[in-house]
Amino acid sequence: MTTRWTYAFVDRPVPRFAQACEFWTGATGTRLSDSRGERREFVTLVPPGGADACVKVQAVASGPGGAHLDFCVDDVRKFAKGAQALGAHVVADQGTLVVLRSPAGQLFCADPWRGQSTRPPVVRGTRLDQVCLDIPPSLYDAEVAFWAALLPDWESLSGSLPEFHVLKPPAGLPVRILLQRLDEERPVSAHLDLACADIAETRAEHERLGAEFVAEGSRWTVMRDPAGGTYCLTGRDPETGGVPSGS
């Protein structure tokens, strides 16, 4: 089940979709594609210089939104069947695209690979390169095992802190996965992480674009975008995605 490309989705409520699009194009140095979908609910953030996009925005009809991943593969049916064998459930089969839910409840999609290969560049010292799955303690170990088995060509690594586990994709793929064990029992969710050469500088830039500061951790800053979604600025190398040695 080789993954050819990955997309991080910014999922935001319909009433705040336009705000999300405006903010995230500014934060990632991209432009909007034409909208598509039955309700015009999807848009792609198109990077400069002919690179392939790896971030999309989706307007969700219910709930606060969050984030999810799309995996572009050669054989969508094979990937979906493999996921089901590991405990995932099919939510919707749209022919060329299959929407699934992980054992803990996180949505993700299998989509055909269309030749994407060129990763977008670092923009102003930062790169949106990670989807973090926030998992309750009772489901954490099983969820880590699921994702590691689903993506056997990805490197499964212990995180920088005991509550983190990293799935590092093969070279060239643009989006990593961080699995985070929460301190409380609540439904699984997901948020976006940006790798930042300078967190304070990126925070100031995002505040100029309309984001708000939420909280500060030892190696990350939690922010809220103008559409109400939380995300993190993390002290990682924007080129490699890794935590600098000695941090």
From TrEMBL:
InterPro entries per the UniProt record, alphabetical: Glyas_Bleomycin-R_OHBP_Dase, Glyoxalase_6
Domain of life, per lineage: Bacteria
Alphabetical list of CDD domains matching this protein: VOC
Residue ranges occupied by any Glyoxalase-like domain in the UniProt entry: 10-109, 131-234
Coiled coil segments of this chain: none
Name of the protein in question: VOC family protein
Lineage: Bacteria, Bacillati, Actinomycetota, Actinomycetes, Kitasatosporales
